[in-house]
Design a protein that fits this description.
Chain A: GO terms for molecular function: transmembrane transporter activity. The complex is a heterodimer of chains A (about 425) and B (about 260). Helix content of chain A is about 70%, strand content about 0%. Chain A is an all-alpha fold. The N terminus and C terminus of chain A are likely disordered. The mean pLDDT of chain B is about 85. The chains are: A mainly alpha (about 425), B alpha/beta (about 260). Chains A and B meet through helix 1, helix 12 and helix 13 of A and strand 8 and helix 4 of B.
Chain lengths: ~425, ~260
């Protein structure tokens, strides 16, 4: 297929495919072929769950519920995307849930109690997340306290801080329409279609560019058909999603019309693109994996390990802040339980179910989104089935344990231990 | 001479680990460094690699006296060390490991294709045929392949002296032979190689000269062609062999 550089296999397509780091949405095939499970368990889980809930509760497959799923899962998915960075370097952040609560509470106070404009409130919330991350990271990296302990302490402390900000448990309602639109708003139909075209065009251009560069350099590359098929299948999936979300999903269309791609989908997509780029296409991302894989090797290679580790905590807490904003927007209020309860565990679960390793060195942003989808579908579907919260917790716990078990076993076999 | 150590001394508190060590390594030769545990081999390597500061003597590179105060200084002088525990990231692939810490970028984007291209060129210049897929994680490689990656990582940077710390210690017979052949090729390409080993068969298979350390002193530096294994064993265990090696006073009567 290609002019081979010496010491290369004869025209293998797998290396090029596995290596296609820009391919984060539909790369499952390549991973299966090369024997890496990667995101496959999460994808298989999503399909199985959709079939199961679709049959037992037909309303699960309704357009309204599809839009609902995005809203329900968005906050956890945001936090999970941030957690991936901390998991990749082999640490954990147990405080991410309540960190999101603190940030949401600060936003609510600035917005509602002080009556300040929304950009200031959102900016302050994210800045708070960044400061929290700096603090946690510095304690872990410079003082050498295990991240488990630091963030467990922060978990308790942040819970207290939320209570103090909210003055012993009162809740603050959010009236600002812009902030409420983060999780509750929808794009116009034409906006959704425009965004779809731009996304597919951008993805296609990136893929083709990359393919052409590899051909020009005579590196191992995939057949053009595979690249085209990947672009086409992603395009088809996104087109179907936009089409469905653009359908009328209001119960009483005469009274209130409800159509369009939820704003929160666009936010998740943008965050996904940015963090995937950072993780796979920048030196910093490469160093994150190196620190998680073998810290000593990273030190000897001249990587500024301390800075990389602190940055991971900053990104995690920053994303927790965004998760908190989304959660507050969805509930249109902040109460002492925002970011509490099961939010953290669902977020960690989402990352691990998607394929991030608790042992470090492995994990992708895509994994967090897919795992977040699994968690959201389980909760949504079981809610529709009328199962109690107790059963839902139990099942989610079992799924998390299963995912962690797969992780531990694949690590034990060593062979599967890769970052894809 | 590429590298010359003259009167090198290093002490940790009251313990003199290296005392008055002389050693010269030329481009294109493999110099083996042998010695018993605690003889000071690792300390010597770390002094040259810039991890330990020296307490006395001088390090001369290309005829100029240099102060090597960190691994980056050593790298800037073309000195690369392949440590015993390899220092590879299991979760990164071969190319990513080779370029770790010195990634090629265009703007702020990693230039993976350029790195892969250069990695393939380097491996083929070393006549490495054992690594077929540059994009497989290092975790899936055998011990010999991992050692090959570690060595290739050291020569990727126009290095002029490669120091190998026990590169064959954990390898099987066939893999050891491959790595020894690779070491020989490094020297044939004009690099200076300092090769540390306990295994005298390996040493005699690949070395041009053999330097024996005994209790922190340089017992003798022999031409491999003129030396015998039993001579080297005596130098390692007692610091002297016949007329070679340290005087009786130096060895402190340790010889039976």
């Amino acid at each position: 297929m290609s002019t081979q550089v010496e010491s290369r296999p004869e025209a293998g397509t797998e290396p090029g495919a596995v290596r296609a780091v820009a391919d984060h949405v539909k790369g499952y095939w390549a991973e299966v072929r090369s024997g890496e499970v990667g995101a496959l368990p999460a994808v298989a889980g999503i399909i199985a769950l959709c079939v199961f809930f679709g049959i037992s509760q037909p309303v699960f497959l309704s357009v309204g519920n599809l839009a609902n799923l995005f809203g329900q899962g968005a906050a956890v998915a945001c936090i999970a995307m941030g957690l991936v960075f901390v998991l990749v370097i082999g640490e954990i952040d147990l405080s991410a849930g309540f960190a999101s609560g603190v940030c949401a509470a600060i936003m609510a106070v600035i917005l509602t109690n002080w009556g300040m404009p929304w950009p200031l409130a959102i900016g302050a919330a994210i800045a708070t997340g960044v400061v929290i991350g700096l603090l946690l990271g510095t304690l872990v990296v410079k003082l050498g306290i295990p991240s488990f302990v630091v963030t467990l302490a922060a978990f308790l402390a942040f819970q207290g801080i939320v209570l103090m900000i909210l003055e012993e448990g009162s809740n603050i309602t959010i009236h600002n329409e812009t902030v409420k639109a983060v999780a509750g708003g929808n794009l116009e139909r034409w906006q959704g279609w425009t965004l779809l075209v731009l996304t597919i065009a951008a993805y296609g251009a990136l893929q083709m560019n990359r393919w052409r560069r590899r051909v020009a350099r005579s590196l191992v590359h995939e057949p053009l058909a595979v690249v085209a098929a990947r672009i086409a299948s992603l395009g088809a999936l996104l087109t179907a999603t936009v089409f469905l979300l653009n359908l009328e999903r209001s119960a009483n269309p005469q009274i209130i019309s409800l159509t369009g791609v939820p704003v929160v989908v666009v936010i998740l997509g943008a965050l996904f693109a940015v963090w995937t780029f950072v993780l796979h296409r920048t030196r910093f991302g490469r160093h994150l994996y190196a620190v998680g894989g073998n810290r000593e090797a990273a030190v000897r290679a001249g990587v500024n390990v301390d800075r990389v580790r602190i940055a991971a905590f900053v990104i995690c807490s920053g994303m927790a802040a965004i998760g908190g904003i989304v959660a507050a927007s969805r509930a249109a209020s902040v109460d002492p339980n925002t970011g509490g309860s099961n939010v953290l565990l669902l977020s960690v679960g989402a990352a691990v179910i998607g394929g991030a390793s608790l042992f470090g060195g492995k994990g992708t942003v895509r994994a967090a989104l897919l795992g977040g989808a699994v968690v959201a579908i389980i909760n949504n579907g079981m809610g529709l089935m009328g199962l109690s919260a107790g059963v839902r917790f139990g099942v989610t716990g079992a799924v998390l344990l299963l995912a962690a078990g797969v992780d531990a076993m694949s690590r034990g076999r060593g062979k599967l231990f890769g970052r894809h | 001479m590429f590298l010359e150590l003259t009167g090198l001394s290093k002490r940790f508190g009251p313990v003199e680990v290296l005392s008055d060590v002389d050693l010269a390594i030329d481009a294109g030769e493999v110099c083996a460094l042998v010695g018993d545990n605690g003889a000071g081999k690792s300390t010597l390597v770390k002094c040259v690699a810039g991890i330990h500061a020296i307490d006395g003597g001088a390090i001369t590179v290309d005829g100029e006296t240099r102060t090597i105060s960190g691994p980056r200084d050593a790298a800037a002088l073309g000195i690369e060390v392949v440590y015993q525990d390899l220092a590879l990231c299991d979760n990164l692939d071969v190319v990513e490991n080779l370029f770790l810490g010195r990634e090629k970028v265009r703007g702020m984007v990693l230039d993976d294709d350029a790195m892969e291209h250069l990695a393939a060129e380097t491996l083929s210049s070393l006549a490495v045929r054992t690594i077929r897929n540059l994009r497989q994680p290092v975790a899936s490689l055998s011990g010999g392949q991992r050692q090959t990656v570690a060595i290739a990582k050291a020569v990727l940077w126009n290095s002029r002296l490669v120091i190998l710390d026990e590169p064959t210690a954990a390898l099987g017979v066939a893999q050891t032979r491959q790595v020894l052949e690779l070491i020989r090729r490094l020297a044939d390409q004009g690099l200076a190689v300092l090769y540390i080993s306990h295994n005298l068969n390996d040493v005699f298979a690949v070395a041009d000269r053999i330097a024996a350390l005994y209790l922190g002193r340089m017992a003798a530096v022999l031409d491999a062609a003129d030396a015998t294994q039993s001579q080297v064993v005596e130098l390692i265990t007692s610091g002297r062999s016949g007329s070679l090696g340290l005087g009786a006073a130096d060895t402190n009567g340790a010889r039976p």
